[in-house]
Amino acid sequence: MHLQEIAINPKTFVTVSTFRHVTYVHVREYDVYGNKKYPTKKGIALDLRRFKSLLLHMVEIREAVSKLISGEKVQERIHLGDAVFASIKSPYRCVQIRRYYSLDGKELPGQKGIAIKFGNDWANFNEAIDQVEKGLSAEL
What are the angstrom distances between the C-alpha of 132 and each of 7, 30, 39, 51, 61? Predict the structure, then answer.
């Protein structure tokens, strides 16, 4: 059940939903067929613990984004819980929120995640998570 849905761009949305009595914040791309939207595999679902961790680290993430935009070299990887990380890395102009997995002692990026591009998408994402935080304030 969708409780809230906020567009980052025409294909990507931040949504709040519940599944088996657990609330999730999704950052996900959707395909549109006719008047219906269908979620794709491109995205990530954060339970409230990981979403709260994302909120706590947003100052650090925003600082890294500002440094990269101003031309500094940046290589930040911020742990959000379990195997989920927010990454900002030169020269890529995006914030990746992605689940990682271990293989032969190395941590590798998994398929579950999303890249939020700088510019309008990043600004819209910031607004969206602020709205979601306000909407979920009683649960956080």
Answer: 12, 19, 19, 10, 18
Contact between 51 and 25 under an 8 Å Cβ cutoff? The reply is: yes
User: Given a cut of 70, is residue 2 above it in pLDDT?
Assistant: no
pLDDT surpassing 70 at residue 1: no
2-135 folds as Transcriptional Co-activator pc4; Chain A (2.30.31)
Do 14 and 128 form a contact (C-beta atoms < 8 A)? yes
Residue spans per domain, the chain: 2-135
Distance between CA atoms of 16 and 41, rounded to whole angstroms?
Answer: 17
Instruction: Give per-residue pLDDT as tens, 65-107.
Output: 999 999 999 999 999 998 999 999 999 999 999 999 999 988 8
